[in-house]
Design a protein that fits this description.
Elements lengths: L1 H22 L5 H21 L5 H24 L5 H20 L1
Helix pairs in contact: 1-2, 1-3, 3-4
Length: 104
């Protein structure tokens, strides 16, 4: 169950990171409230998952999901560049997440 909560926390991290763009510097109330809600949910779920997972593993997986998801979201929704180097780096993060799951 902790791993499921951690994955949901990571997805919420992606939501708030991408939501930052929609807030336009926290000048738009609706997107700002949604972004803050996603941030709060993300951190709370990370804390719950960390009760039974090593904090180093939980935090690394959480930030890894957030980083990969935010890069992919930026590519899909904001037209950020797709380069071989960026995709290789994303692949390295994913392999690190998988590695931590296997050994942790």
């Amino acid at each position: 169950m902790s791993w499921i909560l951690l994955i949901i926390a990571g997805l919420c991290e992606v939501a708030w990171a991408l939501g930052l763009k929609a807030t336009e510097g926290f000048t738009r109330l609706g997107p700002t409230l949604l972004t803050l809600a996603a941030l709060l949910i993300s951190v709370v779920l990370l804390g719950i998952a960390a009760r039974s997972l090593p904090i180093g593993t939980a935090y690394a997986v959480w930030t890894g999901i957030g980083a990969v998801g935010t890069v992919l979201g930026g590519i899909l929704w904001f037209g950020e560049p797709v380069t071989a180097a960026r995709l290789v780096c994303v692949g390295l993060i994913v392999s690190g997440i998988i590695g931590l799951k296997v050994v942790g």
